[in-house]
Amino acid sequence: MEKMILKDKIALVTGAGRNVGRGIALRFAREGARVVANDVDGGALDRLQADGRAEGLAVSPAVADVGDADAMGEIIDRVAAERGSLDVLVNNAVIHVNLGERGPFLKVTDQGWREFMRRNLNAMFLNTQRAARIMARQRRGCIINISSNGALLAHRQRIAYDTMKGALESFTRAVAIDLAPWRVRVNAIRPIAVSDIPAEGTEAVERDRRLGAMIPLGRIARPADVAWAAVFLAADDAEFITGQVINVDGGMLVQSRPPQLELEPVIRPEDLPL
Predict the structure, then answer these.
(1) Rounded distance, CA 118 to CA 67, Å?
(2) Which residues does the annotation mark as catalytic?
(3) Structural domains of the chain, with CATH
(4) C-alpha span between 73 and 270 (Å, rounded)
(5) Which of 13, 45, 186, 257 has the least C-beta neighbours within 10 A?
(6) Contact 52, 29 (CB under 8 A)
(7) 113-126 pLDDT tens trace
(8) Could you read off the pLDDT of 210-268 as tens digits, one per residue?
(9) How far apart are CA 206 and CA 194, in angstroms?
């Protein structure tokens, strides 16, 4: 039986068409939230809405590029006006502009860097500020930013992405302090290697197996893992938690090296009968 932890909360989730955002949108709806799902891909939102409807869940689509400040501002204001409040904002969307922001540092282009930051970091600032004004007037609200292990550990040839995620976490802490007097909480979730369960026989199965072997709990993260952390942070019982970053990484970031590189043999459960 669902606990309906988020019953009647109004939540806006960006990048809800796939993977983490989709998982959060559906889990929020299962917990009783009235969810507005944003994505630039209208087809993905149609599929999300249909899947929600099959479970008896109401998920409302809002098609817009998260980097379009005017369009997103209209959505945020409309949600609050039509539904009477805005209780939760999940900043999940990432826009890859494909203008040279990826690749070796010496090949990253000025245009790619600037456009990536505009449509991601700048967009998060503008959308969060728009939502926070509404929440401040309400004297309540919760903002959840989806980070990445790239905020702490560098990916090769992902300079712009890692820089943006590192800034996102600093932004989370700074905004949490500024909004605390209005009882608006701001936290982040730092997942690692998140993917839907791939179809058997595909290359993704082997990819997941290889990545999972480096993680202490033995698998990569699934959208449901991140979604549950988001439910926890959005719940009223988390009212004293703000400015924090929660790792959802299966223990990856607390180990000094993956099992394959350990200097001593790694003991497996089957090696040590209890």
Answers:
(1) 7
(2) 161
(3) 10-271 (3.40.50.720)
(4) 55
(5) 257
(6) yes
(7) 999 999 999 999 99
(8) 999 999 999 999 999 999 999 999 999 999 999 999 999 999 999 999 888 988 888 88
(9) 15
